[in-house]
Amino acid sequence: MLYYLFDYLDKQFDVVGAGLFQYISFRSALAFILSLLFSTIYGKRIINYLQFKQVGESVRDLGLQGQVEKAGTPTMGGVIIILATLIPVLLLAELDNVYIVILLVTTVWMGIIGFVDDYIKVFKKDKEGLKGRFKIAGQISLGIFVGAMFYFHPSVTMKEKLPIKYQYVAEDGVPVLFGEAKKSTKTTIPFFKNNQLEYAEALEVFGKGLKDYAWLLFIPIVIFIITAVSNGANLTDGIDGLAAGSSAIIVLTLGIFAWVSGNIIFANYLDVMYIPNSGEMTIFIAAFVGALVGFLWYNTYPAQVFMGDTGSLTIGGIIAVLAIAVRKELLIPILAGIFLVENLSVILQVGYFKYTKKKFGEGKRIFKMSPLHHHYQKSGYHESKIVTRFWIVGIMLAVFTIVTLKLR
User: Where does residue 277 fall: left (phi above 0), alpha (psi -120 to 50 degrees), or beta otherwise?
Assistant: First the structure.
């Protein structure tokens, strides 16, 4: 809203300083500051309100060190992250930008699913929360919406770099390095020189003429990514600061990709596809990172608040949508490696237990406990040490992901 106000003041009255709001870098910095201030200052008030309403975490005694002491700690703290993200974005971003619209819908959509889940756990005293089928249905519905928007909306386009012999300088002196904006389902494959995969062409393996039906492949892929990443973030949210800190690292990396993909100069230098209008996502990302960092003020050990499914499902959904938007979804296994390992540890644990119980009559386990962070807790590591080391691994994965821009 402030963006439109200052844009009007700049164009109509030439107000000094109003033109700053035309710069994505300025609005991103302002979004980060506003988000950080809101989450740290008003976050405490929200925590106090949650305590007043007795929105406390019910903890099952699983034999983990310090676990019982956390009973009664306010949950649903994901509301802090959501509000601290939405307010700066609504004030500073172009609200008619298709990428901002998709991210806003994702935030609210996943926030509602998580809120309902937490509400049932806290107020209905049902530890299972929202039934799995309803949660999956909500994630699938969002995946259909996001996939359809990315595939069918006319503003979601890309520009490919022209071969050197076709590059030229226009009459106004501006070099023309990229072709016309066009609809495309291309994405980036890491580590390959010609590192683009066209989903539409992949369908032609099953027969010619299927290119126009690429949405039949693209939308299910979007659904799978959103479901997998949101559930991965949900499983990672098990000890103080782990999910919020790991997510901040992932989102910051995606912010770099969004900045590069939305800036024609950097896209040319790094030889990546140029995605018009995607730079506006940097403002959302800056606000989101500010919200996560501000939330960590209260969520680091010993936590004063837990994000609950309200936060973890929302975080996972946003990360998935951002990765798809910048055409880097195939990098998720690397960038979000923490989420992937947490997911796999649960799948392997459950699968191996069922297999050994069926074969030998007695279930056996690979890990002392899953998800993986609980295995290390059972091994005697303090949770703050586990979190710090997971963050270090997350930073290493983020750096390696950025390196893939040139490592081909």
Answer: left
- Nearby residues of 183 by Cβ (< 8 Å), 6 or more positions away: 154, 156, 157
Phi, psi angle pair for 74, to nearest 5°: -55, 135
Distance of alpha carbon 244 from alpha carbon 147, whole angstroms: 26
Q: How many CB atoms lie within 10 A of CB 234?
A: 26
Distance between start and end Cα atoms, the chain: 42
DSSP letter for 186, please.
Answer: E
How confident is the model over 147-173, as pLDDT tens digits? 999 999 999 999 888 777 777 777 666
339-362 residue pLDDT tens:
999 999 999 999 999 999 998 888
| Alpha carbons 243 and 316: distance in angstroms, whole number | 10
Which residues, including other chains, have CB under 8 Å from residue 9's CB and lie 6 or more apart? 15, 18
Q: What predicted TM-score, i.e. pTM, was given to this entire model?
A: 0.94
Show the tokens assigned to 356. Answer: 């050994």
Helices marked H in 77-197: 78-92, 98-123, 132-152
C-alpha separations of 264 from 168, 175, 196, 197 in Å: 15, 11, 18, 21
Q: Are 202 and 220 in contact (CB under 8 A)?
A: no
Which tokens sit at 156? 């979601």
The residue with tokens 């939305």 is 262
Furthest C-alpha separation in the chain: 80
Token pair for residue 51? 């305590």
Q: Which own/partner pairs from 59-64 qualify as long-range (CB within 8 Å, at least 24 positions apart)?
A: 60/127, 62/369, 62/374, 63/378, 64/369, 64/374, 64/377, 64/378
Of 49, 75, 30, 101, give the one whose Cα is nearest residue 295. 75
Amino acid at 173: G
